[in-house]
Structure formats: C-alpha cells, structure tokens
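Structure in, sequence out. Go:
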C-alpha cells in the first residue's frame, strides 16, 4: 500500500526553505512521512491510503481513505481543494475510514485538517489524468489501448527552419485525421499546422505534404531543389522551406486540403485552448476556404460547389479515360500523364467528400470566429456552409446516399467504365455524417444502406465498409478492383461508420462494426489502412493442379541428425516441416515423407566447392501447364546474386532456362519475409536457429501448348538450392491476396477508429474547448457491458473528463460518477433495450430529465451547469408496449 501522510501547509507550499524559516522538523519513518502542526498547535498525523497502490500519482475518481487521525479526533474537519482552489470535500466530524473521491481540476490538490478555525495539518498531492478506456471486454479494452499506443508512436520529429516539429505524418491529410486521436496523447500539436500555415500560397492554396530534400550538393554546399513535383506541377503547386531542406507540394487533383487544414486547426485549438494561436490563424484559414470558392479549377459557380477531376472519391489519381477526353491528353508540365494534373480542360465533376469537408470546415471556422466575438464573420461562414449543403443535396443525394462523382463534362467514352455509378457507395459517405453535413434522416438512410449491403455480402467477403462498392471494373488510375480506394475494406470507412451509427440510433450496429475493426487489429498486431475484401482478386481463373514426383531425385532427409542429413548439420534442418499433401499460399504440394522414401524427402543441390551434387533432372513429366509453382529456398548465399537455375525441357526438344536470383524468385531459408516474387509460405524453427522457412515461387509458362518432358535443377556458384515440391497449374500465376492490402492510410484509419471509441462508444464529446462544456453519452449497454471506466485527457492543456459507469440489471438502474475540468455537462445516457428512464438523481437529489428517442433507442437527457463532479443514479423501467 502507498501511504500518504498529510503534512503542514507551509511545507506543502514551499518545502525546505519555509520549514527552516518556521523552525519545523520533518521526521520520516519507513515509507511514511510524519507531519507536524503549526507552531503552538498540538501535533497530529493524518494518514491517507490510495485506491490504486500501483501508482504514486492520484487520478480522478480514485478513492482515498483516511486510515489514521490525531489522538484526539473529535471536532475535526477535512477540506480538499483542487488545483483551481475549488473545494470538493468539506466534511465535519471526520473519522478514521472516511473516504473521498479525487475530483476537479488537474494539478496540485490540497487537503487540510482543521479543528475549529485552527489549521492542524495540510498536504499537497498531484492529480493527473491519462486517456484510458477500461471495460470488461478485452477486445475493446486491450485493442483501444493498443490503438492509442499506435497513434502515439506515429511519425516523429522534423527540423524545419531551425524548429523542432513533432508530427504524426508529414502528409496533411494523414496528420489531420491522426490528430483526432493524437490530441489525447500528444502535448505538442501546433508545430506542424503552423508550418503549413506559414507556407500557404498567397492565393490561399495550402500544400498537402512536405518531404525532406536529401539531395545535398557538396560543391555548391546547398540543397539544389531537384524535385519531381516542381518539374511536373510547377511553382504554383510546390514550395521550399526557408532553410532549403524541405520541399512542399500539392497534388493538383486534391480539392479538400484547405478544408482539412481548417478542421485540423480547430481540433488543435480545442485541445490546447490557445485562443491567441487560433485567432492568429483565422485570417489564413478564411483565405484557404475563399481560395476553394474563387479558383475556377476548384469551384463550380453554376452549382455553388467544389469540383474536382474524376478520381476515386478524394484520392489523387484520375481515371485513365481523362487522357482520351482531355484535348492535350491530360499531361502535366513535364509532358506525361501522371493522373494528378488538372487544368481548365480537365473533365471535372462534383465529389461529395470535398463538399462535406468544406461544410465541416466552414462550420468550424464560424465556431472559432464566434468564440473570438466576431459574430458577423461567424454568421457569414455559417450561411456559406448551409448553402453548400443545400446545393450538394440537390446535385449528389440520390435518395439513399451521396453519389460518388457527378460529372460536369459528358462524353461517350465514359461508357467504357462499364460500371453502374449511380449505385456506387463511396468512402466519404460515413464522413458526411460525422462532419455534420448529413441530416439525421440522411444519416439513417446511409447507415441502413450499409446494413443492407452487409446482408448481401458473398461468401468470404471481409466487410461491407469498403472504399467503393461496387468497385470500378479493371484498372482505375492504377488501382485494380478491390484494392486501395477502388473497393478495399478500410477502417477509414469503418471508423466513421461505427461513429455515425452510435450517434444516430444504431448503437448495436456501431458496436458490431467497431468490434470487427478491432478484431482485424488484433489479428494482425496493428491497424492498417486497407484490407483485401476477398482472398481472391476479381480476375481469378479456375485452376487444376498436378504434382511433379520428386521421389526419384530426392537426396536428403528433412532432419540433420539422420543419414543424408538435410545440409550435413545435426541440428540445422527442416525437422518441423509438414509432410504429405500440403497447401501453401493456396497451392497444393506433395511433400515427401522421408520414412516412405528411404529417408529421402528433399532435393538439395550444392554449388562448386561443396560435397553434394550440382545437378539433377526430373524426367517423365509428360504434361502441359500454364504455370509452375516451386516450393523452394536457398542456402549458403553469401553475397552472390544467382544460386542456380531451372531448365524446362519440352517434348519437342526446345528448352527454357530460368535463372534463380536471390531476392527475385528465391531467397534464403533463414529469411523472415517475402523477397521479390518469392513468397514466404512456411516458418518454423530447429535446435540451431529460431527461424527457418520455405517459400513458393510461380513461373508463367509462355509455351503452355507444349508438353513438358522434364525439368533440370542446377546449383551454381557457392550457393545451395533446396527444393521440396513442384506443382503444375492450368492457370497463369495467381495467388490468394494477403488480407493486409496496404498501410498508406494507417494514420487516418487509426485516428477515425479511435475517435469512434472515444466519442461513439464511450460517448465523450467536447462541445467547447478543453472540455469546458462536455457531452457524456455512455453507450456501454449496447455492448452488453456492466462496468466501464473512462478518462479522456488533452495533454496540451489541463482539459479532461472522467467517469465510472455501472449497470445493475437486477436493480434496473445505472450508476455514474463523473468529474472533469469543465463546468457544464450534457448527459445523453443510453437505456437498455426496451427500457425507459424512470428517475435521475445527483448525489441523492432528484433531477429533471427528458426521455429522448433516437430511432429505436431511448436516452435519458439532462444537463448540469456550474457542477464539476457528482454521483448519478438512473433508474429505469420497462417501456410500455
């Protein structure tokens, strides 16, 4: 147990100097600190015990118990004040065993013991808070904690113009979304948005990313500025830091960057409470949104909406049809099509994600202006936001959800897309809800659409929250169907979808989506941006297999301690490799069991200078194949690139030589990952090393109409070829996809998913700044939880909120203890299914409440002002039929 003994106020305030001045002596006995009374007062001691003995710091809502009092305890009064000197405990007739909860503002709290007006003793103890969500469900508790750690570990520190800049990513989009979670863990938030604001173009354009220039010229002693973006996009879309070390760029196709910056600055201000910093940024933010409304490449004056080129939602690259429609082939300044260049002749359209991002940005800009007392500007931007929302609903709302892209340029070539675009549900639809652009009715329609599509998922489809459903057929801007922004399953969609479901009466569905996202994280050890929707790509061809029998050429046992040991080492071997009919990466192989083949299971060939054979031939194959798969690895690689070759001998006497090149189609059996086209298919261990492996490599046979007579295997150099199986396929080389499809959007995914956990499930929403005005909407009952403890903190300020929630089904009641740094709490507490709130009390006193129904969900709503803590009890009864 940690024992904390109350000492004198003079000591707590100024430590040793005032102790000496007052002539006091502090005695220490073991881990306990003895306290003294002021001069002339009777000596007394107050002993405190923390609820959590694992930490020396005190945390909000932690119970603290008085274990010992002075010898004459009668008439004692205890007063405890928070860091803002607000009293939250004032108890008379204190006795041993008295318990109080830590509450109020973070920082030094002060406990004082009085008899009458005489101060007997005092102590200062530090109260801190961290962002943490605890509940009985290990998936939510463990994976949300892991996700928070992933966010906290993103990015790094950049040095720009002599400044140290902490960042989650040097890409603005990724940083903006990562900050949705990062602001709960990181104290330094303003540096990177400051950089983007500093280098904003005079037009108002904002750069979308920054990259370090490593091309130092030793002769000139400078960074010459050679950069692909400058050559392809020109000075209008690129820039350079004052120290010359960083290059800024903006993909011309992007039409939401300025909106993202406004929202990012708002979130940083909300966490830090730095009004002066926010006020200084306001003119630049207004200029950024004005740029979107004034530049003819960004704004459709006819529709009153932001426009962009034909990309995958808010992704960067245009469809290749733009080359055929654009009069100059849509080439950039360097003369080639990169998919990101736009000019006045580019085929444009309305993408809803750009416009809902603008709606959110204009609304938040209005909120910041209002906070500064600029009511006229606030009203102006609110009106702008509403006009954009009204126009967007006219153009893009199809009655069920927002259409992906409404083209402004019509052309016969669009028919080549062969896709029903009117039914494409694209990734920004859930964001339209969390950004506040969609009305409740529209939110319900969008969420219901995802639920309908979930019910229609085919076998083996991972989830309904894909970036594009259905995807564009074939290739779109270099992205194949089912990949990246063209139909990959993504937490970038799942996070906001869960968040939206919690907000709009679909709490059970919100729990379901959040649970499935976190299960993916648990499965792969972290959260990624994209996952393959199905194991097989859309262009998969049916295939049949036949095995090549290696029994006549196998020359080695799989163990090293047997005769003809694997590589002549008693312990370095493949003793744990599975034998018999096996499938690796979806391809079947017949792995020889050594006991069925005279102790021979593997073919191992050595290069020059080694004792083993260098070459052998598998004869009598007599089959055709579209492709051939080899289950193999290499050893004794050293620094050589080539370790051998396969020779395919056809029945007509022709042959094809296939070199085995390390890192291209074969790799070391001690490798821990893929190498080129060689895919690690099995990992194991032996008594000699902790990791050994085998891989599969597939070769497309360009002469599939010919019979294969035999295959020659040859080792070369000093290397070793280790072959365990060969399978012939009737289809070209194809593999089941890895479930993890890419991690380019990992920060974005982590940010929006964590926000769904905090604001959706835990229900903590900051309605002002630094949690001065907070909404608490615990929805744990939707996850069948009975207890939860939540603490959400902004490290860039002292803003925080904490609560402990308990559901007691037997008593038909909920209990909720809360505290925080603010003075207004709006409660919106979800009832169990089929229940209605009956009574709400605060510290035993009845509160007026409202029964609010959101779709089929019932909430108890009430607000508290000038209150920073309390104990709530909410009784409920079955709803009438």
């Amino acid at each position: 147990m940690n024992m904390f003994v109350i000492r004198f106020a003079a000591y707590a305030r100024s430590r040793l100097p005032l102790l000496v001045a007052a002539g006091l002596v502090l005695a220490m006995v073991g881990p306990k600190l003895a306290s003294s009374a002021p001069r002339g007062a009777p000596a007394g001691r107050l002993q405190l015990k923390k609820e959590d003995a694992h930490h020396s710091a005190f945390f909000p809502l932690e119970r603290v118990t008085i274990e010992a009092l002075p010898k004459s305890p009668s008439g004692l009064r205890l007063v405890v004040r928070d860091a803002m000197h607000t009293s939250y405990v004032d108890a008379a007739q204190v006795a041993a065993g008295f318990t109080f909860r830590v509450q109020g503002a973070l920082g030094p709290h002060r406990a004082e013991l009085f008899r009458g007006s005489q101060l007997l003793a005092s102590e200062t103890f530090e109260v801190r808070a961290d962002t943490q969500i605890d509940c009985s469900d290990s998936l939510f508790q463990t994976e949300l904690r892991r996700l928070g750690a992933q966010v906290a570990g993103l990015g790094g520190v950049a040095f720009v113009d002599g400044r140290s800049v902490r960042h989650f990513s040097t890409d603005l989009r990724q940083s903006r979304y990562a900050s949705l979670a990062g602001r709960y863990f990181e104290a330094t938030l303003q540096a990177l948005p400051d950089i983007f604001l500093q280098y904003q173009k005079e037009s108002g354009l904002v750069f979308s990313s920054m990259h370090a220039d490593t091309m130092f010229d030793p002769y000139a002693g400078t960074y010459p500025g050679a950069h692909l973006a400058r050559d392809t996009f020109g000075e209008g879309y690129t820039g350079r830091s004052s120290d010359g070390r960083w290059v800024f760029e903006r993909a011309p196709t992007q039409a939401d960057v300025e909106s993202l910056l406004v929202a990012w600055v708002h979130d940083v201000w909300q966490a830090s409470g730095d009004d002066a910093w926010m006020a200084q940024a306001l003119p630049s933010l207004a200029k950024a949104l004005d740029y979107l409304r004034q530049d003819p490449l960004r704004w459709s004056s006819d529709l009153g909406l932001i426009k962009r080129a034909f990309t995958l939602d808010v992704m960067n690259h245009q469809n290749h049809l733009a080359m055929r429609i654009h009069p100059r082939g849509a080439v950039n300044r360097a003369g080639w099509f990169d998919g990101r260049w736009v000019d006045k002749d580019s085929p444009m359209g309305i993408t809803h994600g750009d416009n809902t991002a603008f709606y959110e940005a204009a609304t938040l800009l209005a909120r910041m202006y209002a906070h500064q007392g600029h009511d006229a500007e606030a009203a102006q931007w609110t009106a702008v936001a509403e006009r954009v929302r009204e126009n967007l609903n006219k153009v893009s709302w199809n009655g069920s959800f927002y259409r992906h892209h409404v083209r402004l340029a019509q052309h016969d070539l669009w028919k080549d897309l062969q896709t029903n675009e009117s039914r494409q549900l694209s990734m920004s639809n859930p964001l339209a809800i969390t950004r506040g652009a969609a009305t409740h009715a529209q939110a319900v329609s969008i969420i219901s659409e995802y639920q309908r599509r979930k019910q229609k998922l085919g076998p083996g489809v991972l989830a309904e929250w894909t970036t594009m459903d259905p995807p564009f057929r074939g290739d779109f801007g270099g992205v194949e169907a089912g990949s990246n922004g063209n139909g990959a399953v993504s937490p970038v969609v799942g996070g906001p979808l869960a968040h939206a479901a919690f907000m709009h009466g679909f709490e059970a569905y919100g729990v379901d989506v959040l649970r499935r996202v976190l299960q993916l994280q648990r499965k792969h050890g972290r959260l990624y941006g994209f996952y393959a929707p199905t194991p097989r790509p859309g262009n998969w061809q049916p295939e049949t297999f036949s095995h090549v029998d290696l029994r006549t050429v196998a020359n080695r046992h799989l163990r090293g301690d047997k005769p003809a040991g694997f590589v002549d080492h008693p312990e370095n071997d493949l003793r744990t490799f599975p034998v018999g009919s096996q499938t690796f990466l979806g391809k079947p192989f017949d792995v020889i069991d050594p006991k069925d083949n005279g102790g021979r299971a593997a073919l191992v060939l050595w290069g020059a200078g080694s004792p083993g054979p260098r070459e052998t031939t598998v004869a009598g194959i007599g089959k055709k194949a579209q492709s051939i798969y080899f289950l193999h690895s290499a050893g004794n690689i050293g620094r050589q690139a080539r370790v051998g070759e396969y020779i395919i001998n056809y029945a007509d006497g022709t042959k094809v030589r296939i070199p085995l090149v390390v890192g291209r189609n074969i790799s070391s059996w001690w490798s821990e990952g893929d190498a080129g086209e060689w895919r690690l298919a099995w990992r194991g261990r032996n008594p000699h090393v902790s990791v050994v492996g085998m891989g599969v490599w597939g070769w497309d046979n360009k002469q599939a109409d010919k019979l294969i007579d035999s295959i020659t295997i040859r080792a070369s150099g000093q290397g070793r070829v280790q072959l365990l199986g060969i399978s012939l396929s009737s289809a070209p080389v194809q593999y089941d996809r890895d479930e993890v499809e890419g991690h380019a959007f990992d920060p974005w995914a982590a940010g929006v998913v964590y926000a769904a956990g905090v604001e959706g499930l835990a229900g903590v929403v900051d309605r002002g700044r630094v949690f001065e005005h907070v909404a608490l909407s615990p929805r744990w009952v939707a996850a069948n939880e009975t207890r939860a403890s939540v603490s959400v903190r902004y490290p860039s300020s002292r803003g925080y909120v904490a609560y402990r929630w308990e559901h007691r089904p037997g008593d038909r009641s909920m209990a909720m203890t809360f505290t925080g740094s603010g003075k207004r709490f709006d409660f919106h507490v979800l009832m169990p299914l089929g229940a209605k709130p009956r009574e709400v009390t605060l510290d035993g006193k009845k509160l007026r409440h409202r029964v609010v129904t959101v779709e089929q969900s019932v909430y108890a709503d009430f607000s508290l002002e000038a209150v920073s803590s309390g104990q709530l009890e909410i009784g409920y009864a079955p709803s009438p039929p």
